[in-house]
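tool=predict chain=A
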Amino acid sequence: MNALIFGHAGAMLLILAGGEMLTSTTAARALSLEAGTCSAIDGDTLRCGRERVRLLGIDAAERSGHCRQGRVCAPGDPEAQRAALQRRMQTRITIMPVKRDRYGRMVAIVHSAAGTNLSCAMLQAGASYVARWDDRNAIRRSCSSTVSQANHL
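tool=predict ok
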């Protein structure tokens, strides 16, 4: 099932392929999306329709030419990290919006159908933990042993 997610003034509107509309207050509700609705752009960002969703608290390796000058970018193989995230998109996912970042992306906690926190799964796949991006230490609390073993930026 295809879906589009739009955010406006702290609320979200989910328009499903059949035209059904669901609204959600950003802080109050999670969105449950069918397998295949979203795809991995890279190891820390999903595309769900027109919406880009950034996983909370992590940074994945950047594709060649995407690490801006002066920035410390996450180490690792960007294609392997993107593929690892894409594999996790094969089940229904739940997106719990946290905020919007400076690029307009929705920053969210995302879980697989089995309840796996995808930020934690991506730390296991080689992404880096970024404490300043982890609002209220949600990722550290969710998978503290994984965070302690991960690369930190």
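The longest strand covers residues 93-100. The CA atoms of residues 6 and 67 lie 27 Å apart.
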